[in-house]
Design brief:
Blueprint (H helix, E strand, L loop, with lengths): L2 H40 L4 H21 L4 H20 L4 H49 L10 H13 L6 E9 L2 H8 L1 H18 L5 E4 L4 E8 L2 H16 L2 E3 L2 E3 L3 E8 L6 H17 L5 E3 L2 H20 L5 E10 L5 E12 L3 E3 L1 H11 L2 H17 L6 E5 L2 H5 L3 H11 L7 E5 L2 H19 L3 E7 L6 H6 L2 E6 L11 H17 L2 E4 L5 H10 L3 E2 L10 H21 L1
Parallel strand pairs: 6-7, 9-11, 11-12, 12-13, 13-14, 14-15, 15-16
Antiparallel strand pairs: 1-3, 1-6, 2-3, 4-5, 8-9, 8-16, 9-10
Helix pairs in contact: 1-2, 1-3, 2-3, 2-4, 3-4, 6-7, 7-8, 10-11, 12-14
The protein binds ligand C2E and calcium ion (2 copies).
Amino acid sequence: MTGTQIAWRKNQKGFSRRELVYELGAWSYASCLSYLATATIILDVESDVKLLMVCNALCYGCGIAARNAGRPTIAVGQLLLIIAPISSALMASGSLALIFLGITAALLFPALFSICINVFENLRRSIVAAETSKQLADRMQVLARTDVLTSLSNRAGLDHQLTSLFTDLQPGNKLALLWIDLDRFKEVNDTLGHPVGDQVLREVAARLREQAPRNAVLSRFGGDEFIVAAEMRSLLECEELGGRIMEDINRPFRNKQERLDVGCSMGIAMYPDDCGDIDTLMQSADLALYHAKVSGRRQASFFTEAMNRDLVKRREIEMELRGAIQRDELSVFYQPIVDLKTGRIRTFEALVRWFHPEKGELRPDEFIPIAEETGLIITLGNWITAQAARACASWPEDITVAVNLSPLQIKANGSALGILTAIQQARLDPRRLELEVTEGLFIDDSEVAGKFIEELSSYGVRFALDDFGTGYSSLGYINKFPFKKIKLDRSFVSGENAGVKSEAILRAVASMGTTLDLDIVAEGLETEEQIKSVRSAGCTLGQGYYYSRAVPDYIATLLLKRNRDDNQKQRAQA
Ligand code: C2E
Ligand code: CA
Ligand code: CA
């Protein structure tokens, strides 16, 4: 028996003892009143006293029956104890008037008994009704706070439970909030259907229940977002919990015979270390989650103050970016991609630049992700493509231009049409436009990406797979989509990890390129040694500061002219 049950039993025992004392007291008092009145009748005292005593007893009996109707044993008992002796004495008095009075007094009992029982029944019914509606209200409240699919708390439930967790926090302890977002849920849901998606969500909930401490609050916060909040003694305890959850959710799920790799990202914040209340705790964990996602997913990030500063900066950039195109602060620069054998420029990659009047030059890495988040990338991307197409149209016909496309741009309605319009308006042959896409495009929604690539390829637009080697590096995409070029990320050439291993990868990718008749571009070439090394590994094209940084279109035109002249001279010498 639990402590609460024992306390309840004790309470009940005390209550029945008090009730018995109360009953005995009430009955004794009623008996006293009645016997006094009866005595005045039997002893034939003065009629005034007799009248007053009998009236007093009977009035008390009637009144108390009404007052105690909720406890019929007391009420009926008191009534009987008052009426019975008085009416018996009256009927035995011998006087006709008193006998008649005795009979009417006796008749009071059934009348009051029935009133009393009626009142009691009505009271009982309304109490039962009140209790039932309270139970119903409690049940409704539980339902309103529960997510039907996973039986975890929903948003409303989370708010409620977090407040309790917060107020009950032991001094010296911390409140950890882990915000989990599934990385590839949308893909599973879209390709395998909602029932499989639901199954994955239920399985995630089960894994969370298994890993989280018993007192933790578990919630499904949005479609594929979950929150675990728990009281922790230390940062270490929180790290261990985060690690366990990441490991468990990153384990593949099973759908019949199929293995589903969903994976998750996690943002973690702690009270009081990172914030002063629940709202900022949530915001901090959300920011940490954002950070985990942009740094490559399948990661857990702890909140840091720098993330707040980042957020302020991001908001500023977001506001200013909206007007940057109109204010003419953006430019497209061009970086040559060179044939590694002949040294001839074959393509210019269009790279956007923002010359901010106060902040100076902003790199695309600082504002492209913000443009993607806010949807501005669609307008911005169309503008970049239009600029690039126009610049390329002014170059010799064997020169192509490469434009970077972000996944969001491709998924927007009418994206293919936007690109076709840009090349048409610039009067550029579609075969002179190359679109650089990254693997991220296929991970989120490969069907839409497939249609986009198919449609534009049918007009002659070419596609290059950018930053190869940094993500999943799945050969499946190369096989499935008509890529003409693979761009090996610069980390294989000039990054700190460049070495024997990356050279082996370079060789393997280059030999695949030869077999499949694909151009392999080595990015980030800064020195002659690097050029020699990628050339001997089998790469066909190169790009990097060694040849040129990205430059404005008129300088690109000059570069091109000089490159052609140098090339002709070399050929003449040879
Ligand atoms: P990316 O497509 O991989 O572009 C190559 C980046 O490497 C460029 O940086 C370029 O300036 C830099 N780079 C080229 N050669 C070298 C080198 O020898 N050494 C080093 N250390 N870096 C070199 P940038 O212009 O800052 O662009 C960064 C990224 O921003 C691009 O990576 C691309 O993903 C994105 N981006 C740039 N322009 C656009 C755009 O117009 N649209 C979209 N959607 N994304 C863009
Ligand atoms: Ca690129
Ligand atoms: Ca790249």
